[in-house]
Amino acid sequence: MKKVFVTGITGLLGANVVNKLLENGYSVIALVRKKSSYLGEENKNLRLIEGNLFYDISKYLVGVSYFVHIAAETSQNLLSYKEYIKTNYDATIHLFLLAVDSRVDRFLFVSSANTLGFGSLEKLGTENCLQKYPFTHSFYAKSKLETENYLLQNNQTTEVIILNPTFMIGKYDRKPSSGKIIFWAWKKKFVFYPKGGKSFVHAEDVANGILKAIEKGRNGEKYLLTNENLKYKRFFNRVNAVTNQNPLMIPIPDFSLIFLGFIGDILRRFKVKTNLSSINMKALRIDNFYDNQKSIDELGMEYQPIKNAIEDAVCFFEERK
Question: Cα–Cα distance between 140 and 108 in angstroms, integer?
């Protein structure tokens, strides 16, 4: 039974990854801040270790074949690049060097699709596309790209595989994180939507992609894990269909988002944490679309309709009240 060390298992993706690994016969050691935060299934082959990302985990890496690093700082309201670099770069490099010293075979880094260049429905973004504005100015996306570059330059002994998931929806979104977009439409009489769009994917599919990358991924490669490219209006219509509602759909004019971005930039200058910024509002106005063909061809991925992801997320939220 091969051992896998995993970080970030208390989040949406991490819990799904642990379930997939255990279902497929792996032994899992996971780093958590608090054991009580883990919402996935218990298993005799799962061992939880309490600590932070700068903890010396060397003794737990003995005999570990694969390291899956999911934990990250994903907040969109932090005010400086240093706040992202500490978790997304410094902590990752610390863990990677421990993995190298422990002779772990493969280090899988869960990054973001926004380190790659997005495209349109006519020409989707791929693993070969260079990062584009506004994400070139996103502290989060920049910190992820800087980490990718370091890992890919130092993959001579421990193999490195980069996973680039798009916007994930699904079960175990306890905060919620990306699942907040469902509450944007759920139980609302009026739904205001931006004119842009993004690539959506079931978190369970991303977890399956990580499992397949462990088995089939090539050293030094990036893999986009994504499925449906949808305008926000179409996505909210999917939410409406799942939740049996029929709200009035109202487009948000671009000038309103531009104005909100301007207000956010001013607030940030006064050290006020806010999700509002010109960068974030620009992201809502573009078609942030990506291609999944490489993951299908090389990893053998099969993707579920995003409707399934919405149903799983809504069921989870209802159970958690």
Answer: 19
